[in-house]
Write a sequence for this structure.
């Protein structure tokens, strides 16, 4: 696997033009060294690479690492191009996937790299909500706290509680191991995955209604698609148990945010929310005053050290690609997934698929 | 093991007088049923049992379940008494342990029952501090939040970070499995346990100085003893890394709380605190205004459903005791531990040993 | 995901013609019921489907389940065909993969279904060799046994010993969790996978030489390819430690079997062997008399209940395919893998890829 | 915990006289070094220490490490003696336990040190029996083997099969983690433990009848006691399923060995046996010819490197004892256990309690 075994120099040529991200944001020191060992790097700067230079370089490149596709149609000749790798967080909507499939160019996203850090935050939010850590701290600051068991009248333990997952992509796959020592039975709704696959992952495939009605903690992890706008409608949200906690960390696209806000303000259930319909959230949005809410400014997936997972996965798979092996760590675009993804672009130029996949329940 | 196999009725007689706790607080329905199946229950009410009745009943009883010892010296004859079981949270200081050891009466505490719920809270506090969940929510409420990576400049991932434990008792033993999927290397300081035992538990025995100086997250889990007052002195606290998080969930007895408060207010490190030198904490205590602190009103160990673990462990071991078998789940008083425990009684009539054991480092 | 939600009947049409395997061998009762719920089944019998009928049926079919490809070139029109699924144990060499890739037809193998049962056998063989269970039993039958520690002079514990894997495919991925409680450090040689991917799986990427020279137990799990004939040459085998155990469960193709036999007969190391260069093995083959060998007649992957994993995986992914979703459980043919696979066909009409992938070390 | 912190020299004095075992058999190099660092060692040789010298030394010693008690009554004065530690494999029957309890001298056995190596062998035997590794090898040597699925007609997978444990002591506690990745539901019969304790260990408490009747693999792990001679009677053994496997690794004391032999010869079930009523087993014992048996000459607990666990545990707890702390790793004699242990001494001078505890089911 050592790419330098034969010739003493890297065998591949890779364009590195993350433009929306900085090089050092994506690659930790050692991964950057590995990148240069595995391939001759073209560009590799923080500023956007001039378009004409990209066009030229694509004729010789084995792969391109970018964040969204701003290069227009593929050049006529891309004889050596085997991979387009996005580090922006999803599959770029501007790309002509049909043409990529025809030419045998894989389109890959490093979105699964967000799984570990978002999953860690999701667990933290769930514990904070279940054990009322945020509300308890707030009371301590105003002197309104209640001590010991009197302060726990609405707290509950996460351990052994039924947990539901809406969407079973990379966040869910990172979250399931974190939940394992809590021994929670887990049900999952994901219409883009077969019940058999979900069973093989240790979770029970379920309808959205059942997930909502039977879980004490519901994690909303589904990426936006053309099929799942406001999937968690008011009627769905009303299925939640009175003492449930809803943790929303993928996109506000998938929920009726107004309905959720009203229900939380009415004390119907508790929420922990990292994503909002408009960001920054208007200063007068009523959710900002909800006692039953934990609010986070879209911070679950953007801890600096966590972003280096992007670069690590990219280099791991570049090692494979320059050795004419199939990649193993990044997510590969398939015709089926591309067809289902939405045109939602409120969060940048890439279609956010950092987590999966909940469409309407008839999938 | 079915205590009714032979005679069709329970074989033991057990006094149940928790007085400081209510029966239903200690025993869930099914454990209460099991209790009555395993033994004839004397008293079994919420009100304190009259002292003279206790004295009489002790002559015939196999065991007594209580919360602190308010009965004075043991009666002259306790021929059948095999166990004194405390559900208050520690070993009652008023008891004559020497006499118990001589008579072969085990003194047992259900304190390990607090381990799971305190450990869950400790992890929640650690994640809330590392990912700045509480501070982030506070900012959202004042409109001062910063979004995405700008709001994460001082956040860090728990995953793979060095973790230190001060005290390795029942909380630590419940916490270690919760930390396992985060793959953190764990060091522990506990002068009441041998390095070899700690190694057998998957942690590295360490000095207190090393635990403080090398860990990103330090969990303070040591129960108070005569040896560990203000063990975490100002000098010790100054060993902490600038970006460390200290989670304090056992007792304020073990820390120089004033020094801690000053250091946190100075931005030296972050803390999450569930226990205080005086409870309720004075309204003007400066820690209440510390931005780098998460504050909780002694709520880690008093979630109602978690308290039922007390009753479950008690009945599990009563099953053994009435069958003339050694108990397996409750913590047994040993001469060594009793000799080391402190007279600290700020938290009730029982010596809190819900977690172990950190004395001075030459322990 | 319920394929009958909309119309009340299965949406896909699937040809089921396993011919080399029987229907009931592949599908357990409940999976057969699921198969019929998810798709209208064409053929579905043990006898080979007439070729002309296959040709006709392929025009309308969504998928075909077969065991090797005996149907010649694909028909001109296969408009709905999305998957060719092999349950024979590998990728059929007779198939025109280029044409499949062009038409967007996925070729899938159920070979990973063999992983769990082969891994279980591999662990059993390793323990039997390390603890000398077979040799010990043989001695008991001739009365030559030695008791207690005298009988253990060449036995060793598997726990915490360095383990090496040659090939990291589906067997290895099933074996790693079984080894986890033994806390063995694991190195792996697989030139078809990047070092980064191997690290993400909890094993250390290594050269073949290092795997052989440093491991106490070496598991040979690599499927045959054009690149790995006699990969474990005499020179390589001589790198093994004197007290090492070699467990061979993939194919004899990858080892110099004569050299191995000589070295075992010379007492150089111990082996456990499930696969042979010729099967049935000639009655006078010297390995049959080797005291340091455990011999098994190619039985690791053919326990009946284990074969039902084939059917379970197939139906799990057919659920996805008929719902226009990408499959998740079966192994997908990629151009890179197909190019590297060997023409070895001693074990049937399918290229055995039930496990991965060890080519020459400059892979 | 460093015993030399204060004075620069070891604080305890420990007699080390294993006589039935050699020093180097018990202690690995590093543990021997630790032993000498933690205490001044008296004797410490392979030959038995002269009795009069022991008597004298006991007056000053903190602890004695021995293998069986050959020293008669305790000397009148043992003011500093805190522990009698047996490395022979059980609790010495010659010792006056009542006197030890009165004087506050703990009697400890290192028997749990056998758990890991016996558990590993037990799993190896179970896999060898389930997958017919021994029988399969035997057939290969006579040329009577059957290939692939034809050779597996009576083989089964261990994965997910119901497993039963007779006795839940240290072997069982080491075995349960090894079984975890096989996802077997586990029931256990141990009349010396409460159902609640067993539940807390992740197994279901069960009657002996149910364990035998419902398990595919039964592990017999109970140490002999006065209560469990031939506990597995003919009637009990006849409850086993026709295709069950019985793994016997504790003592033949607990089974009707003749009945077992007849039933195995009749093909009623399969066994793997490491312990026998008489050792060495008579050359003409019929079990030696049973095709359905795997036979091992009492080798499960006597691998040299495994015995070093004895010394490691001993030193770990001596570290505690010389620091006036309670031991944590060795098993402590309790009045209840001592009262129940048998006088069985076929295996040496120590009562073998290396595993627990199955008495008659009315326990």
């Amino acid at each position: 696997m050592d790419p330098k075994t034969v010739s003493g120099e890297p065998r591949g040529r890779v364009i590195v033009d993350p433009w929306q991200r900085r090089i050092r944001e994506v690659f930790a020191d050692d991964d950057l060294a590995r990148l240069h060992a595995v391939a001759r790097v073209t560009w590799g700067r923080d500023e956007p690479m001039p378009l004409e230079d990209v066009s030229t370089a694509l004729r010789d490149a084995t792969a391109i690492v970018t964040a969204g596709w701003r290069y227009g149609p593929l050049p006529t000749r891309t004889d050596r191009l085997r991979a387009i790798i996005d580090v922006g967080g999803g599959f770029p909507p501007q790309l002509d996937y049909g043409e990529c499939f025809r030419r045998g160019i894989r389109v890959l996203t490093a979105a699964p790299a967000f799984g570990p850090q978002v999953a860690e935050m999701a667990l933290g939010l769930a514990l904070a909500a279940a054990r009322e850590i945020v509300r308890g701290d707030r009371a301590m600051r105003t002197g309104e706290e209640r001590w010991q068991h009197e302060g726990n009248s609405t707290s509950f333990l996460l351990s052994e509680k039924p947990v539901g997952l809406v969407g079973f992509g990379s966040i869910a796959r990172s979250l399931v191991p974190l939940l394992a020592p809590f021994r929670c039975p887990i049900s999952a709704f994901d219409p883009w995955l077969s019940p058999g696959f979900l069973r093989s992952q240790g979770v029970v495939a379920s309808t959205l209604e059942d997930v909502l009605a039977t879980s004490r903690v519901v994690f909303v992890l589904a990426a936006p698609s053309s099929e799942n706008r406001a999937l968690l409608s008011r009627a769905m949200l009303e299925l939640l148990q009175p003492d449930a906690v809803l943790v929303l960390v993928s996109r506000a696209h998938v929920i009726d945010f107004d309905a959720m806000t009203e229900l939380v303000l009415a004390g119907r259930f508790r929420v922990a929310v990292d994503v909002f319909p408009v960001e920054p959230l208007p200063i007068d949005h009523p959710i900002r005053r909800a006692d039953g809410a934990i609010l986070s400014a879209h911070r679950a997936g953007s801890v600096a050290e966590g972003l280096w997972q992007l670069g690590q996965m990219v280099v791991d798979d570049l090692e494979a690609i320059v050795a004419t092996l199939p990649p193993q760590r990044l997510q590969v675009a398939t015709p089926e997934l591309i067809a289902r993804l939405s045109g939602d672009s409120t969060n940048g130029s890439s279609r956010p698929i950092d987590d999966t996949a909940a469409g309407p329940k008839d999938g």
